Amino acid sequence: MVQIVVNGRRIEAEDGSSVLEVLRHQKIKVPTLCYHPALKPSGSCKLCSVEVVGKSGRPTAMLSCILKVRDGLEVQTESEVVAAARTRAFRNLLRMAPQSRHLLDLAAQFGIDTGPPPDGCVRCRLCIRVCKEIIGAAALRMETRDGRPFVAAVEGHCIGCGTCANICPTRVIQVSDRDGIRTISIRDETIGIHALERCDACGTLFATRKFLQHALEHSRPHPEFKEHHRHCPTCAKLMAHRVQQGLSQKQH
Ligand code: SF4
Ligand code: FES
């Protein structure tokens, strides 16, 4: 038998056993994934880290499933070193198995912040900011689900302009125009569904009714507000060009 110290408590341990086996025997909880009592330990998941004083004399994280007990070994199962090692290990595993409910539950059980899920969004918040600061619709917000942040729709606020999709650097926000209907979505969630209106000049379906209404309301107070037309960007450019040409002919 050897004597080890776990979380400041002196414990007798069987020579040759692993630290994890002793911890389990003592009912001290440490997360594990790749450990199985019938198999040799492999040290694959890296979840079972504990803090011990290394050869350098500094506290260091070691895998308790592999580490063998020795006389005088001091072990901490809850410390900053352990939390950092566990967080790294959980995040690494979640990169490979992001949808694993078991992993997420295990991380939550040990109070580990697993960070944002790999859903294609880098949480730059450009979509949220442009929708609020420039468009003025505030149709998107950050929402916490299971302790993790997600871009989510604010119900009924989307006007279907698509600016969020245009500005998104990872293109995770999608705009689909099909059969006269515009659908804006992120992941498999809908941000807004809108009927498209036709251009007064060429008849092309080009913008949503809510967006045109919004543009009208926001441009009306402007000192240079002109009569409002529903023209698609191409026709609007052509009209502006014609007006410009007419003006310069008058001047000559
Ligand atoms: S959805 Fe796109 S724009 Fe919005 S936070 Fe994520 S990456 Fe950034
Ligand atoms: S239990 Fe997986 S590395 Fe120790």
Your description of this structure?
This protein has 252 residues and is an alpha+beta fold. The protein folds into 2 domains: 2-109, Ubiquitin-like (UB roll), CATH 3.10.20.740; 126-251, no CATH class. Helices cover 31% and strands 24% of the residues. It is built from 7 helices and 11 strands. Strand 3 (49-53) and strand 4 form a beta hairpin. The site of iron/sulfur cluster has 15 residues, from helix 4.
**What compounds are bound to the protein?**
iron/sulfur cluster, FE2/S2 (inorganic) cluster
| Main sheet record | 5 strands, mixed
Percent helix? 25-40%
- Unreliable runs, pLDDT <50, ≥5 residues? none
Based on CA atoms alone, the radius of gyration comes out at 30 Å
Oligomer: single chain
Q: For the record, give the distance between the C-alpha atoms at the N and C termini, rounded to a whole number.
A: 107 Å
Instruction: Count helical runs.
Output: 7
